[in-house]
Design a protein that fits this description.
By secondary structure, the chain is of the alpha/beta class. It has two domains: 92 residues, MurE/MurF, N-terminal domain (Udp-n-acetylmuramoylalanyl-d-glutamate--2,6- Diaminopimelate Ligase, Chain: A, domain 1, 3-Layer(aba) Sandwich), CATH 3.40.1390; 211 residues, 3 Solenoid (UDP N-Acetylglucosamine Acyltransferase, domain 1). Helices cover 14% and strands 28% of the residues. The chain contains four helices and 40 strands. Strands 8-11-14-17-20-25-28-31-34-37-39-40 form a twelve-stranded mixed beta sheet. It has a ten-stranded parallel beta sheet with strand order 9-12-15-18-21-26-29-32-35-38, with no helix packed on it. Strand 39 and strand 40 form a beta hairpin. 37% of the residues are buried.
Length: 353
């Protein structure tokens, strides 16, 4: 059995398809980067990506953090993506691809060598597709998947093993629906990715209190996932009660996130693992919710606001604000409070002694 090594190259062919080789000129064009090196550098051929410490002359690597400059000095990479501030640190013989956004350039070049695998058109013999469902061109339906009545699956979409697509669900083109995903009462745009175990469209947490106990309130809304949304493994998004739950275009949701009924997330939001967003909460565009943060219901988080890890948000947050703590307060206020408490603690210790 092949053992893991700290210097092992990424892109194990057992798990990842590989394209290439590509010339430095082709990669620079993909990344919108400037080539630094001899005139012949543009024609250098590269076969893949690798970290600085493991790359050979046939791979391209990446540097975006000053603390890794010692690795740059020792690298044997054929080329390195880096910021303009570091180009004078390139070792002799290593080609530079200078970018204003090195990490973005790295993402584009890595995707060039290892693109997402296209759908393999066809329905597996063990899958079940209702006769009223509509499948677009080039759709892949995996083993034991179920496609219910009146569901629509767009062109080039992949439905992986054991996924369950509910009645009337609409899924756009070139989506990737992972294993054991369940989707009901939902409309998905194009290029949406749902990782394994995601649950979309289940009843929201709504109940009334009657004389005999709790009575469930019908949840009559839907879930709308706009174009280019990605949702991490085992995350859950409840359908709305009266209005829809909406996840805005380009939003990225990490693993193990819960989003309640009627929540409205804007474009390009980030919600990190184990965060919880209660029902009817609204997030503006480009909001960041860090890990384990909890948001009470019926509040508004303004555009480009940032909510810190383990934060308890109990009221509206202004656009562009940074908050942390429980209850949430602005970053500066929180750390002033922490510093004040530390000073008090030191005084108490000295007084006791």
């Amino acid at each position: 059995m092949t053992q893991s090594r700290p210097d092992a190259l990424p892109g194990d062919p057992r798990f990842f398809d590989r394209q290439g080789p590509f010339s430095v000129a082709e990669l620079a064009e993909s990344a919108e980067a400037e080539i630094v090196g001899p005139e012949t550098a543009a024609g250098v051929s590269l076969r893949g990506v690798a970290p600085l410490q493991a790359a050979t002359s046939q791979e391209i690597s990446f540097l975006d953090n000053r603390r890794y400059l010692p690795l740059l000095a020792e690298t044997k990479a054929g080329a390195v993506i880096l910021a303009s501030a570091f180009k004078d640190k390139l070792p002799e013989g290593v080609v530079g691809l200078v970018s204003k956004a090195p990490y973005l350039a790295w993402a584009r070049i890595a995707a060039r060598f290892h693109p997402v695998v296209s759908a393999r058109a066809g329905v597996h013999p063990t899958a079940w597709v209702d006769e009223s469902a509509i499948l677009g061109e080039g759709v892949e339906i995996g083993p034991f998947a179920t496609i219910s009545a009146r569901a629509t699956i767009g062109d080039g979409t992949v439905i992986a093993a054991h996924a369950a697509i509910g009645e009337g669900v609409i899924i756009g083109a070139h989506n990737r629906i992972g294993t054991h995903v369940s989707i009901s009462h939902a409309i998905l745009g194009d290029r949406v990715t749902l990782y394994p175990g995601v649950r979309i469209g289940q009843d929201g947490f709504g109940f009334a209190v009657g004389p005999a106990g709790f009575e469930t309130v019908p949840q009559l809304g839907r879930v709308i996932l706009e174009h280019d949304v990605e949702i991490g493994a085992n995350s859950t998004i409840d359908r709305g009660s009266m209005r829809d739950t909406i996840i805005g275009a380009g939003t990225r949701i990490d693993n193990l996130v819960q989003i309640g009924h009627n929540a409205q997330l804007g474009r390009c939001c980030i919600v990190v693992s184990q965060a919880g967003i209660s029902g009817s909460t609204e997030l503006g565009d480009f909001v960041t919710i860090a890990a384990q943060a909890g948001l009470i219901g019926h509040i508004k988080i303004g555009e480009k606001a940032r909510v810190g890890a383990q934060c308890g948000v109990m009221s509206d947050v202004e656009a562009g604000a940074d908050v942390i703590g429980s209850p949430a307060v602005p970053f500066r206020e929180y750390f002033r409070n922490v510093a004040f408490l530390r000073r008090l603690a030191k005084k108490d210790v000295k007084g006791e002694s």
